[in-house]
Specification:
The protein is built from eight helices and no strands. With 225 residues, it is mainly α. The chain has one domain. Helix 6 packs across helix 7.
């Protein structure tokens, strides 16, 4: 499928976006640090703080990046914008219900979640720099691809399994964004598909562990009775 824009036009969108929103890029990074700090130091309040931050980031990407900037070269960007805003609303529902908390745990979840977050905040811009995507011609944190990877890392750290419907839009964008690797030379976006697979596997495994734990508890209760 041929894209309705070329690499130069795509990078021009980032230039215009970065110039227009400066210094909000710093604010977005601060929000990411706040989310991580809460997860590390006070997991009990993560059910309110972390989904709020994710919700705001996704609504920003939908309303600002997609609908205002990306739509200038891609007619379907406004559809992406609506989907991203919907995803933001889904995260904000967690703030109201408190249905999900997040924590760093020793083992595969903590390692994988930390690795994905480190990639989003550090390795992604470094990889972009060495592939010629130098600021302002680069996707900064708060733009869809690095922020989606960051979201994957946060969701790996969820205490309970993340429902499938919460992953549909981020996973869909991971596949769409990955197309930029081959067609536009955005090689830093290779992490999108890899991180989506990591989250999918670990989220499924987490479900099995929780289910197995409950099954064992039920079995024990039946034996006791």
């Amino acid at each position: 499928m041929k894209l309705p824009f070329n690499t130069r036009q795509f990078l021009e969108v980032f230039k215009n976006y970065n110039h227009a929103i400066w210094p909000l890029q710093i604010v977005f990074i601060v929000l990411a640090v706040v989310a991580l700090s809460v997860i590390i130091w006070n997991p009990l309040i993560t059910g309110k703080i972390v989904p709020l931050i994710l919700g705001l980031l996704w609504m920003w990407m939908g309303g600002a990046y997609h609908m205002i900037f990306f739509s200038s070269i891609n007619g379907i960007a406004k559809i992406f914008g609506i989907l991203f805003i919907m995803q933001g609303i889904l995260f904000l529902r967690y703030v109201i219900t408190g249905a999900q908390t997040f924590q760093f745990k020793k083992g595969i979840y903590g390692i994988a979640g930390g690795a994905l977050i480190f990639y989003a905040l550090v390795l992604y811009p470094v990889a972009g720099y060495y592939t010629g995507h130098v600021y302002p011609y680069s996707p900064t944190f708060g733009a869809p691809c690095p922020t989606t990877i960051f979201t994957f890392g946060i969701l790996v750290l969820s205490k309970d399994r993340v429902p499938f419907y919460m992953l549909i839009i981020p996973f869909t964008w991971a596949f769409i964004g990955f197309s930029a690797v081959l067609k536009l030379g955005m090689y830093e976006d290779t992490g999108l598909i890899i991180c989506a697979i990591v989250l999918g596997i670990l989220n499924s495994t987490k479900h099995k562990e929780i289910f197995g734990l409950r099954s064992n508890q039920l079995t024990g209760q039946m034996r006791y009775n």
